[in-house]
Design brief:
- Helix 7 packs across helix 8.
- Helix content is about 45%, strand content about 10%.
- It starts with a strand and ends in a 9-residue tail after the last helix.
- It has 16 helices and 11 strands.
- The radius of gyration is 22 Å and the shape is globular.
């Protein structure tokens, strides 16, 4: 089904297509000034998703066999989007001069509404339906972005501080992979996830500028709690200064493309502002399953805690059964962390022994080795059987 999300394309389709043409999906357009076009034909099996439409025209669409799913006034968020979010949209309303600047953002207001309407088990079917429709459009947007691309994911702890050497290492790795044409993605939150997008942001810029950005991000407020940098009052303020100091033009943004996939379930953690594309979900289960499934060209596991450990074995399960149709690299980055602090490596190595994906497991502290293994991987040489 053809998807139309630009007004000029909709107008052209109406003028050039005849009755009986294949059905279309019209996404997030203001069609209130186009009632004449809408009333002039039948809309059998056509979808109008998140569009603004005059009542008479909407009634005609439905009566002629089409479907209209409008945005619902009870929610701050749209039930259907034609594209993914970006930082400017999520952080709209941010006041960099105010101590509580993040609390004024659209993202935080949606989170507070999410809590008020029921976080885990909303009482209203209207709430659950609106959230599912929203998340469906996010999945559609993600699928369009990753289609035909080489994709590598970075998993790691949200507690990783910006001054942690591993934070800088992850950023440098992501920068190199982005320059090599990979789309890097993460869970879209703070810590190692944010470092992924910081590195991609600086892919089209001189190397020294990433070092400058890291120095700008590192200082924390006096008395700040260890492992909770995302709760610092100036967490977003520091990132915003970096974004303002090192802006990207349209061409550079294409070269710096990265994808963050956060969730309002963890809405107390702000999404990574350096991601050029943000697919924010309400349903964390959909998000978690999709993250690893999208990373068809490998996953880097930076130091993390319970969540990252879970993701390691979730990815190992996908490789064990070859559910994607091929086996892909698993790189545990941080030898001491994954052998002593969280000794996952010995068990992973044991369960993968004799399996086809065993040769794709890597344990290293070396940034060059991480990149080298990913660049050497060829999907067609590791087809699941």
């Amino acid at each position: 089904m053809q998807e139309i999300d630009r007004l000029s394309d909709f107008e052209s389709w109406c003028l050039t297509s005849s009755e009986g043409a294949p059905a279309i999906a019209v996404e997030a357009l203001d069609l209130r000034a186009h009632s004449a076009l809408l009333l002039a034909r039948r809309w059998l099996d056509c979808l109008f998703l998140g569009c603004d439409i005059e009542a008479a025209a909407a009634g005609h669409i439905v009566s002629s066999g089409g479907v209209v799913l409008p945005n619902l006034q009870a929610f701050l968020f749209p039930v259907h989007r034609s594209k993914l979010y970006d930082a400017e949209e999520l952080f709209a309303g941010f006041d960099p001069t105010a101590r509580d600047g993040y609390g004024k953002t659209w993202d935080d207001r949606v989170y507070r509404q999410y809590l008020a309407q029921g976080k885990d088990q909303p009482a209203s079917i209207q709430v659950t339906l609106a959230r599912r429709l929203h998340d469906h459009s996010i999945t559609d947007g993600i699928n369009e972005l990753v289609a035909g691309r080489k994709v590598v994911a970075v998993m790691g702890g949200h507690a990783m501080e910006r001054r942690d050497p591993f934070y800088a290492s992850v950023a440098r790795i992501a920068r190199r992979l982005t320059r090599e044409g990979y789309l890097t993605l993460s869970g879209g939150g703070p810590g190692a996830m944010e470092a992924t997008h910081l590195g991609a942001w600086f892919a089209p810029r001189p190397d020294v500028e990433l070092d400058e950005a890291l120095a700008m991000l590192a200082p924390r407020p006096t008395g700040a709690a260890a492992g909770m940098e995302y709760a610092d009052w100036d967490w977003l303020h520091r990132a915003w200064r970096v974004l303002q100091r090192f802006p990207l033009d349209a061409e550079e943004r294409v070269a710096a493309t990265s994808l963050g996939i956060p969730t309002w379930l963890y809405g107390h953690e702000p999404p990574a502002p350096f991601a050029t594309h943000i697919g924010k979900y309400f349903a964390n289960s959909v998000r978690e399953d999709g993250l690893l499934a999208l990373a068809v060209d490998g996953v880097i596991f930076a130091p993390g805690s319970a969540g990252t450990t879970q993701e390691i074995f979730q990815d190992a399960t996908q490789n064990h059964y070859g559910t994607a149709g091929f086996y892909s690299p698993m790189i545990l980055f941080g030898r001491q962390h994954w052998t002593e602090r969280r000794p996952v490596w010995p068990l992973l190595e044991h369960v993968a022994a004799g399996k086809a994906y065993g040769e794709l497991l890597v344990l290293t502290d070396d940034e060059d080795e991480v990149v080298r293994h990913l660049l050497a991987y060829r999907r067609d040489q590791h087809v699941a059987r």
